[in-house]
Amino acid sequence: MLTQCSVSPEAIMAIAVLGSGTHKLEIEQIAEHFVRLKEKGVPIPPIRLRRIPGGYYSEDIEAFVGRQAAIGNADAQNPVEFYESVIEACRRILTNELARHPHEMKEVAQALGFDMSVITPQIGA
């Protein structure tokens, strides 16, 4: 079990996007990934989460989504649709994080039920 978090918030957001299947998510759905990690005792990176009716919200996640929408990589409507350019960027984020923090990334992925083969087939094997 990890005692401190080395994984970036962007890596957890990337897991949320890649793991969604449809690549359409609400900010609250991405925030839920951080909450699930915390509930399972996996340290999460510094991120502001606040409770709202029906779940959690994060201005940090909203900023990430806003940056993607501003450069044309996502639709700003809720739920947010992430375009292929973001999908590729998410794969790069996770590949880099896996190279820097392999143990931590595997623990985070396992806790979230994320199949690392989504990044590259060899990683999940």
Features:
globular, two-stranded antiparallel sheet, about 120 residues, about 55% helix
Describe this structure in words.
Helix content is 54%, strand content 10%. By secondary structure, the protein is mainly alpha-helical. The protein has one domain. Strands 1-5-4 form a three-stranded antiparallel sheet. Strand 4 and strand 5 form a beta hairpin. It is globular and about 35 Å long. The model has no long low-confidence stretch (mean pLDDT 88).
**What distance lies between the first and last C-alpha atoms, to the nearest angstrom?**
22 Å
The count of DSSP E runs of length 2 or more, i.e. the number of strands, is: 5
**Helicity level, as a percent range?**
40-55%
Order of helices and strands: HEHEEHEEHHH
The radius of gyration over CA amounts to 14 Å
Topology:
Blueprint lengths: L8 H11 L4 E2 L1 H13 L10 E3 L2 E3 L1 H12 L3 E2 L4 E3 L1 H17 L1 H11 L8 H4 L1
Antiparallel strand pairs: 1-5, 2-3, 4-5
What would a concise description of this structure say?
The protein has 125 residues and is mainly alpha-helical. The protein contains 6 helices and 5 strands, in the order αβαββαββααα.
